[in-house]
Design goal:
Layout lengths: L6 H9 L15 H5 L3 E3 L2 E3 L9 E5 L13 H9 L4 E7 L10 H14 L2 E7 L14 H15 L4 E4 L16 H21 L4 E4 L2 H4 L4 H4 L12 E9 L7 H7 L5 E7 L11 H11 L10 E7 L20 H11 L16 E2 L5 E3 L13 E2 L36 E3 L10 E3 L6 E9 L3 E3 L1 E7 L5 E6 L2 E2 L1 E2 L11 E2 L16 E8 L12 E4 L3 E9 L6 E6 L8 H6 L3 E4 L7 E6 L3 E6 L5 E7 L5 E4 L5 E9 L2 E9 L1
Parallel strand pairs: 3-4, 3-10, 4-5, 5-6, 6-7, 7-8, 8-9, 9-10, 11-16
Antiparallel strand pairs: 1-2, 12-26, 13-16, 14-15, 16-25, 17-24, 18-23, 18-26, 19-20, 19-22, 19-25, 21-24, 27-28, 28-31, 29-30, 29-32, 32-33
């Protein structure tokens, strides 16, 4: 069986290293000249011409006049570049009790230094405590972003990106999913800041923070920002922060969310989140593997390492008091990674068994038949030590915690597969359990008929955060009942009988199961469908973005009206009129959702349009006179009609 790659993965493999940079002598590279003004293509950060790129470098440690161990002169940015950095993050501290406060002159100087070095820069409004970006301590944000964006406009710069709020948080420990109100704070603030940036720098790339120190990316596609006219052209991305020494359990949130939203790791370190306690290079390797494309969306994720200083803590690039003379363990690791240049890799898996959905009959996905390939390919699994005794923070001793019958199922792999309840009179299915924040799993299936299909999940009666999302071929997999795309891609699975939590007695029962239709907590009007754009092989991924009570089965509901494949072909009709047409103006109807292409006499495609079944489509193409082919592609195959243009 050939290995299954997402289309975007193939594209990125082909394009990697397109700029021909010299990583053995990076000081000579002109990143700004090669890439121009950056933009998003789908979820991927790209050059001005549309090639996928990855920014890599360091975050400054604030203004050196305030922090004696921080370095921020032209020579410092040149030094970063000489080690392989193609960008720098400029951390403007706001409310940490510093004497100098907001220094727009310093930020402007850093922007100039990066321009001179021909690297990109990210201007960071560095809030930390208090964690609410709307707090009065941060009232200067409007003057700051007005002045900085006006300066960027005046200078004609293309290399400046913006981060509007570093690490928004309510300073309380807990799972990221608990803090939905922090996302409300962020949205309120973003609606004030984004128009300011949009006025002076309307096409800029802007990072929006996420709850609890930039760890809950799920909110961005569970309750997305509204795009308003005052900033409709901004390229909005979402911040993620990661400290490899003690936050490996949250790495799956990054990996899973990469299929749904554009992400920038605006801060990460090899230490614990305190900035100290040593470095964990093995955990760092895993983080970079995910950033370099081995994630659910095949996204190349840009990053800034914390931090460019010699403070004398584990996360510092230089040993204490040894700036320019002695790289720390973190500094040696990061400079080594930067000098490797582009070394991207992507999720790569093969089917475990052949699973086919005929489009007519209901289809039960075999949850135990997840793709082969293991961690970061077929699945992302993280087992807490209470589920797998002896496991550690780096997940080096995982187990199948769901295997209560000791079947030793797929003993070389560790996604947690069990049963709904073998003692029950209800149907018993293979189930997924012990699900933590950010776990995901992929399945390869053969879809016989393209289309949009209803689906249901088998839910137990235990309440949990239960937020998940579905990707198809590495992209958001859900549409509305009208076949329209929607930014509300994160779903909630309700308990089967209302459910309860620990201590609720009979209401909190893992052994009661029933079919449930998932919904959006933020847009209850959407009746979701899973979308397959063509017949053939697809990978379905279920991304569990929070802890999850358990998944008992997954049903895709067939459409009996589809009939057999033979019926489908027989009933496939295309009507085209008038023919001949004046200047390429004609009407067309199809009985199946179709992609329509118009080819000229040389076989070149001059126009493409998606046409819905039984909806009249009008074409006004203004074509030169001649003979053309109108090609219709749909679930029944490909047909062609001759079109004469007068």
């Amino acid at each position: 069986m050939k290995k299954i790659f997402t289309l975007i993965s193939l594209l990125l493999v082909y394009l990697q290293g397109f700029a021909g940079f010299d990583y053995s002598n990076p000081s000579n590279n002109d990143y700004i000249g090669a890439w121009g003004r950056l933009k998003l293509v789908g979820n991927q950060l790209c050059s001005e011409s549309g090639e996928p790129i990855q920014l890599r470098g360091w975050s400054t440690f604030g203004y050196s006049g305030e922090f004696g161990k921080a370095f921020d002169d032209q020579s410092d940015f040149d030094k970063m570049k000489s080690y392989g950095a193609n960008f720098a993050r400029i951390a403007q501290y706001i409310n940490e009790g510093w004497t100098y406060g907001v220094r727009t002159d310093w930020v402007k100087n850093c922007i100039d230094y990066c321009a001179n070095a021909k690297i990109y820069c990210l201007v960071d409004w560095h809030i930390l405590k208090p964690g609410n970006p709307n707090d009065g301590a941060y009232n200067g944000y409007n003057n700051f972003f007005n002045e900085i964006t006006s300066y960027v406009k005046q200078k004609g710069y293309k290399h400046v990106l913006y981060e509007i709020c570093n690490e928004p948080n309510d300073d309380v420990e807990g799972a990221p999913a608990e803090f939905d109100y922090v996302w409300d704070w962020i949205k309120e603030y973003a609606y004030k800041v984004l128009p300011i940036i949009g006025q002076a720098d309307p096409d800029a790339v802007v990072m929006v923070g996420t709850p609890q120190w930039d760890q809950d990316l799920t909110r961005a596609f569970q309750d997305p920002l509204e795009i308003k006219d005052s900033y409709k052209n901004l390229q909005i991305m979402y911040s993620f922060h990661h400290y490899a020494g003690d936050q490996q359990r949250y790495l799956g949130i990054l990996s899973g969310a990469a299929a749904f939203v554009p992400i920038f790791i605006t801060e990460w370190g090899l230490s614990s989140h305190t900035g100290d306690t040593g470095v964990d290079t093995k955990a760092g390797d895993h983080m970079l593997k995910v950033a370099n494309g081995k994630n659910l969306g095949g996204q190349l994720i840009s990053w800034a390492n914390w931090s460019w200083c010699d403070k004398g803590e584990s996360s510092a690039t230089w040993n204490g008091g040894q700036y320019g003379n002695s790289l720390s363990a973190s500094g040696n690791y990061i400079t080594g990674e930067l000098r490797k240049g582009d070394h991207f890799s992507y999720c790569e898996s093969t089917p475990y068994i052949q699973q086919e959905f005929d489009g007519v009959n209901d289809f039960l996905l075999d949850l135990s038949a997840y793709d082969k390939g293991g961690q970061d390919n077929g699945y992302f699994d993280y087992d807490e030590d209470w589920a797998c005794s002896g496991n550690n923070l780096n997940n080096e001793h995982p187990c199948n915690a769901g295997d209560t019958k000791n079947e030793n199922f797929r003993s070389d792999e560790y996604f947690d597969v069990g049963y709904t309840d073998e003692t029950s009179t209800d149907p018993v299915y293979k189930s997924l359990g012990y699900i933590g924040n950010g776990e995901w799993v992929r399945y390869t299936i053969e879809v016989k008929i393209a289309g949009d299909y209803e689906f249901e999940l088998y839910s137990c009666n235990f309440s949990d955060f239960n937020t998940f999302a579905i990707a198809v071929d590495g992209k958001p997999g859900l549409v509305t009942e009208n076949g329209e795309s929607t930014p509300f891609q994160a779903l909630y699975l309700t308990p089967c009988q209302g459910g309860g939590t620990v201590g609720d007695g009979a209401n909190s029962d893992y052994h009661k199961w029933g079919w449930v239709k998932p919904t959006s907590e933020y847009n209850s009007n959407i009746n979701y469908r899973i979308h397959f754009d063509k017949a053939g092989t697809h990978t379905i991924a279920i991304a569990f973005m929070t802890s999850f009570a358990g998944l008992g089965s997954f049903k895709i509901k067939g459409k009996p009206e589809n009939g057999t494949e033979l019926d489908l072909i027989k009933n496939n009709k295309v009507s085209l009129w008038p023919n001949p047409s004046e200047n390429g103006s004609f009407n067309l109807t199809v009985t199946l959702d179709s992609k329509v292409k118009v080819l000229n006499a040389q076989g070149a495609c001059v126009y493409t349009q998606d046409v819905k079944a039984d909806k009249e489509a009008q074409f006004a193409l203004n074509l030169p006179a001649g003979i053309y082919a109108v090609v219709v592609e749909n679930a029944a195959g490909t047909t062609s009609q001759k079109l004469m243009v007068k």
